[in-house]
Amino acid sequence: MQKEYKFSLWYALLGIWLVLLLQQSIVSVTEIPVIPYSQFLQLLKENRITEVAITANQIQGKMIDDTTDRGHPTGFRTVRVDPETSKLLEQYGVTFKGQIESTFLRDLFSWIVPVFFFFGIWYFFMKRMAGQQPGFMALGKNKAKIYVESDLNISFEDVAGVDEAKQELVEVVEFLKEPGRFTALGGKMPKGVLLVGPPGTGKTLLAKAVAGESGVPFFSMSGSEFVEMFVGLGAARVRDLFEQAKQKAPCIIFIDELDALGKARGIGPMAGHDEREQTLNQLLVEMDGFDPNVGVILMAATNRPEILDPALLRPGRFDRQVLVDRPDKLGREAILRIHLRGVKAEQNLDVEKLAAMTPGMVGADLANLVNEAALLAVRRDKQAVGMPEFEEAVERVVAGLEKKNRVINVEERRIIAYHELGHAVVALSLPGTDPVQKISIIPRGIAALGYTMQVPTEDRFLMKKTELLNKIATLLGGRAAESAVFGDISTGAHNDLARATDIATSMVKEYGMSEKVGQVYFAREKRARFLEIAPQGSLDYSETTAQLIDAEIREIINAQYARALEIVAMNRAVLDKGAELLLKREKIDGAELKTLMAEA
Q1: List 213, 257, 277, 420, catalytic entry
Q2: CA 496 to chain CA mean position, Å
Q3: What residues contact residue 125 under an 8 Å CB cut-off, 6+ apart?
Q4: What is the pLDDT of residue 321?
Q5: Does the annotation mark 420 as catalytic?
Q6: In terms of C-beta density within 10 A (0-12 exposed, 13-18 middle, 19 or more buried), how is residue 525 classed?
Q7: Range 61-70 average pLDDT
Q8: What is the overall mean pLDDT for the chain?
Q9: Which pTM value belongs to this model?
Q10: How far, in Å, are 210, 507, 517, 523, 551 from residue 535 at the CA level?
Q11: Where would I find the H helices in 309-457?
Q12: Looking at domain 410-599, does it have CATH number 1.20.58.760?
């Protein structure tokens, strides 16, 4: 093996120092004797100087010494002295001589100090640049963060609300802990595990929990970190990542946001020449090439599985797809209990009720909810976080921050009060609607001047036609109350109209709930699997059918608006009493309004 030698600046400095010492020793050996300037003047008067060479500070020449033969002069040198001074010194018989100041160290430091100074500045900036961007030789190295078991400290106990996904991943942990159990029977672990689900459901946390449970190194990297402006870097980083992983096997490679790297090929004007596609091709090759018995498991997460390349999802690559969906009520309750470990909450906190108030929220939303409640408790100087803080936090997350400083005139406040009470009264009058928890006329968020908060009692996965119609009537209750009380309508119902129209459109075009249109599906897939993406392109049905659909949607909206007007007219006294309370207190509970309706 050939031994490597590294260049060092200290070797160069040592060599310069040795050369200077050698030069000084040579000069000292052949040094010409130095005589005082007064002796030079005396020799000059005695005509014993044969030749001289004069410079600005020194005179060098040959002289005839008393000890030598007159025919063989010897060399000498002397330092010049100011002529006027030398005359005075000679007049009074003073022996004098000149002396040249040694500037060796000064000259040496005048060169070395600036060199070291500029070298230090260069070294400092190179270190800073190396921390932000790798050097030329390191461009092809992967940027994965490597976590060991002590760094992760995450287990399945820290993950809740996704029990089915955890069960799917238990096999991965068992294979990493005891691979012999699987290989003895000829079983092979899936090469890749793809975690699919909406944003914030805990896909990355699940992957870290798998690594923490199995106690193996965890390579974490985002899909966007593979692709950069230089052609070929992404493929080089993929190769380097898998090489490092094989050296540290058994281990887990986790690629977050796989859709940034694994988007379907052949799309776009630069299809076939895109750097991203070359990186994806290299990833496919590496997944085909590594042995599953080595113990390297590739995990990835995405919330857009519909745009992934089909070659990634075939058996032999990402063999197993694990759905990490939104948690149900029991799952939200378990997630809240995990996040409440680090919060000092009241003993009688009803976590089950809090979970029921947060339908549709994912783990990230619930973590933010607990944090908001804790911050509210600190602002109120409370010793523990209670249910009022959590209810306020739910309102903050759902509707936005309160804007108590927004000045609203008296007439507009009356319109807002009757509008919100119209929603609440219609909701309480119809069966199958979500219970009304709170009515408020305090502005929140960007455009909400008031809101009616309805909290479902349980998670629903199916809705009947009557329930959808009641929901539309509830949304139109605010507009109906304005019309019945003031004889006029305002712009405050624009969001209600949009939501009601969406429900009616879905009933006609998607759910087949229109007798005239029939049991036909006319809507394109307007939503991606987890993200809302509007469709593009022309309609797949005739203009006559489109007119029929529009007529049916309008008929549903008008019929439910008429129901809302009828309910509002029947409960006009309740509207007036509720509006008086709401204008006075700005907030009332749904139970109070229910009591008013029972007394009427």
Answers
A1: 420
A2: 35
A3: none
A4: 86
A5: yes
A6: exposed
A7: 68
A8: 78
A9: 0.67
A10: 37, 18, 22, 10, 22
A11: 310-313, 329-339, 351-356, 363-379, 387-399, 410-429
A12: yes
